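@channel sequence for tomorrow's demo:
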Amino acid sequence: MRWVGWVLLCICFLMAYLLRLSAGVLRIPLEADFALSATAFGAMSSMVFYAYTLMQIPVGALADSKGVRFTVPAGMTAAGAGAFIFSLAPTPWLLFVGRILMGMGVAVAFISSVLFLADNFSGELFGTLSGITSFIGNTGGILAQAPLALMITALTWRTTFSILGAVCLALALGCYLTIPSGGGGVPVSIASLAAGVRSVLSKWRIYPVCVSYTATSACSLVLSGTWGVSWVTSVLSRPDGPFFVSLLAAGTMCGAVAAGRMSDTMRSRKKPLILFAGCQVGVWIILTFAGHLLGDIALGTLFFFLGFVAGSIVVSWAIAKEMNPGHMGLAVAVINTAAFFGVAVITSLIGVLLDMGAALPAREAYRNAFLLPLGGAAIGFALSFMAPETFGGWKSRVGRNEKPHLRENMGDRVVFRVGDALRGNIVKERKIRRAIEAALQW
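structure tokens (generated this afternoon):
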């Protein structure tokens, strides 16, 4: 049954991407039904990111204490309920409630998938299955564009989200029936959680990594999740916006693999981070100031590279966990929390800026609004030069606010902490570490 459980978790991961990025193709039907302003639409879309942000660390604690078999069905039930509320919403505020529940629910997918692989598979299957899980999950970003737009056109957005809600509930039941019992039982206290967070944040060089990671995530997700399709529709007067945003999602998948390979080949984390961050500034300058001048092939290439440069997020994951071998999972949760909060804020602010420029031509209004993520990309690029080089181990001076890494070699095993919040105890099996590292590298 573990193989069936793994397949269902992969589909849950796919649904997480699909629901999280689904708002981009909804602007026209929602404006028609609810007369939403750009500000209201941006705020509604960002709710899923705020909820996802708040659930990052609690989900890890829940998976540790209750196990994957409880955590995933609970999360997917919440996501399904959110999709149903969204589909039946008679007023705009229920759209917000639905998006919040969807964001809270799908937050279980990533860490639960990693822990399931660690607990139920061994040997070389770890790296292979982690990569396949990540690939399947990322295809949800593609499905959230052109395929979802076609489905909405054929069935209406209300029927479509009712179907997605039913799929989430079916996945919740399937996971409960097929995922093996076990795992969980790890006590997680507020004190241990706070101590872990303090340990991660005590290293000042985590902050430039966090800002750079936030800028990269925001530049990608504000387009794929909310404003990419609207830009193509409003500025270029084209109906094929979902196709171009699908190219962005495909570019992110390719860029993540390329960034990871480049980092290993160059034997450096910092150099690829700087290179991708610099390229991100370049492609955003083109989109902001000259995107409306591009032909079909050039525009498609631009969107692909907008996603490709966002693949450097895997390098930021690697730096964060290598800086914190004693709190590896928690370190990634911390920068994820900051990143998705940044995505939510920038998504909302773009809507505000578009409303402020409502009297301007669409091209000028979007140009002014897109200066915000462009500025974020520039700041992320500048701070990437301050990121530490952690390839092969991070060498830092232990100051008053930095504690030495805890690592003890015991024969053929390595004793390490994966974060008081995410594992809560000393984990002795090397297979857990290999699974988490493989998943984060993808």
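heads up for whoever presents: The beta strands are 408-410, 413-415.
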